[in-house]
Design goal:
The chain has about 290 residues and is of the alpha/beta class. It contains ten helices and eight strands. The protein has one domain: Rossmann fold (3-Layer(aba) Sandwich), CATH 3.40.50. The N and C termini lie far apart (about 50 Å).
C-alpha cells in the first residue's frame, strides 16, 4: 500500500497536537483516582488472550451498562488509563465496563473486532451474574479506534444464551472521534503499521455495513481534522439511512486528544447529552 500524503496529514496526529502528552497524564491521574474511589472488579477475563480482560465498575440495580473501548489506532493504549470515564456514569447508577483487547500488528484488526464482540458477549452471558439485578440494557461506547470497535459490536450485537434471565440488549452506541471508513487509514503509515489492507478495510468499515440496533450519538471535536469530522457526519447519516436514530455533535475547541476528557466531567455538554439520551431511551438513569 502506497502512503497518500494528504491522508497521512489527516490521520497521523502525533505532531499536530503536542498537548497529547499532558492529556495522557491527566487521564492516568483521573483513572488512578477513579480506581481508588469506586468499587472495581479488575482484569476479568473474557477470552484466552492475556489482553482479553475488562475492568468492571458496578452501578445500581435496574440501571444500564456502558461498555467502553479505548482508542490508540488498534495498536496502543491500555484499559487502565481509561477508568476516568466511569465516575460520571456511576454517579447516575450506570455500570461501566472498560475493555482491554489484543493489539495490532500482532493481532490483525479483524481479530481485534472478534475480541471486542467476545467482550460484549461475555458481559451478556457468562459475566451477567457480575452485573447488578435488573441490568438489561447495554450502551456501547468508544474513542477513535474504540469508536470503530463500538460500532462493529453494535452491527453484530451479542446473543446471550436463552436461559440467561433479564437478557442484556444493546440499546445505543456512543462514539467519540470514531473511525468508520478504514480505506483512508489503509493509505497511511498507521495503516501499514497495523497491517490494514484493502480487504480488511472493506470488511471492517462500519460505513459499508448495516447499522446496529437503537440510537447513535457520534461526537467529534471542532478542532479535529476535516477527515475525522467528515467520518462522524457520514456515519450519523449512514445510521439514519439504516433506519436508526442518530445525533452528530461537533464540540467546539476540542481535538482528538482532549475530547475523551469530557467523559470525566459530569457537567460537560457531552456528558449531559449522553446521560439524557440514556435516560430517555431506558428510563433507568436518574
Amino acid at each position: 500500500m502506497v502512503i497518500d500524503a494528504h491522508m497521512e496529514s489527516e490521520y497521523v496526529l502525533t505532531a499536530r497536537y503536542p498537548e497529547r502528552e499532558e492529556v495522557y497524564r491527566q487521564m492516568a491521574d483521573a483513572s488512578s483516582l477513579a480506581r481508588s474511589r469506586y468499587a472495581l472488579q479488575v482484569d476479568l477475563a473474557y477470552g484466552p488472550h492475556h489482553l482479553e480482560k475488562l475492568d468492571l465498575f458496578v452501578g445500581t440495580s435496574g440501571s444500564p451498562l456502558l461498555v467502553f473501548f479505548h482508542g490508540g489506532y488498534w495498536r496502543s493504549q491500555d484499559k487502565s488509563s481509561f477508568s476516568f470515564v466511569a465516575p460520571a456514569f456511576l454517579d447516575q447508577g450506570i455500570s461501566v465496563a472498560v475493555v482491554g483487547y489484543p493489539l495490532a500488528p500482532v493481532t490483525p484488526i479483524k481479530d481485534i473486532v472478534k475480541s471486542a464482540r467476545a467482550a460484549a458477549a461475555w458481559l451478556a452471558g457468562a459475566g451477567r451474574a457480575r452485573l447488578p439485578p435488573g441490568c438489561t440494557e447495554m450502551v456501547l461506547a468508544g474513542h477513535s479506534a474504540g469508536g470503530h470497535l463500538a460500532a462493529m459490536v453494535a452491527i453484530k450485537p451479542p446473543e446471550p444464551p436463552p436461559d440467561i434471565p433479564n437478557r442484556l440488549a444493546v440499546v445505543g452506541c456512543v462514539t467519540l472521534s470514531g473511525l468508520f471508513d478504514l480505506q483512508p487509514i489503509a493509505q497511511t503509515s498507521i495503516g501499514i503499521q497495523v497491517g490494514l489492507d484493502e480487504a480488511t478495510a472493506a470488511s471492517a468499515s462500519p460505513l459499508r455495513l448495516p447499522v446496529g440496533p437503537g440510537w447513535l450519538m457520534a461526537a467529534v471535536g471542532g478542532a479535529e481534522t476535516f477527515a475525522f469530522r467528515e467520518q462522524t457526519a457520514k456515519y450519523a447519516h449512514h445510521w439514519r439511512d439504516g433506519g436508526g436514530t442518530a445525533h452528530a455533535m461537533t464540540l467546539a475547541g476540542l481535538n482528538h486528544y482532549t475530547i475523551p476528557l469530557e467523559l470525566g466531567r459530569s457537567d460537560s455538554a457531552l456528558m449531559q447529552d449522553i446521560l439524557k439520551q440514556i435516560k430517555t431511551s431506558s428510563g433507568h438513569a436518574s
